[in-house]
């Protein structure tokens, strides 16, 4: 779960760096508006990458981690349709 989130985060941030560097190293020589648009897109990527990296998937059980109270844990397992034997 964490490996998937980390990989997605680094892919997005790598794309951000590539956009920013290529905009000002190469693209600005041909089209300044295109370089500015590329930088604006690169500016939006970091917050999106952080939100996606911290998003919980349906398989992540963070809301009902065992609290140490057997009755409470049993109740949550019953709600989830899981039985402890």
UniProtKB/TrEMBL annotation:
Residue intervals passing through the bilayer: 9-27, 33-53
Residue segments, region Disordered: 58-85
Keyword entries, A-Z: Membrane, Transmembrane, Transmembrane helix
Protein name stated in the entry: DUF3099 domain-containing protein
Species of origin: Streptomyces cavourensis
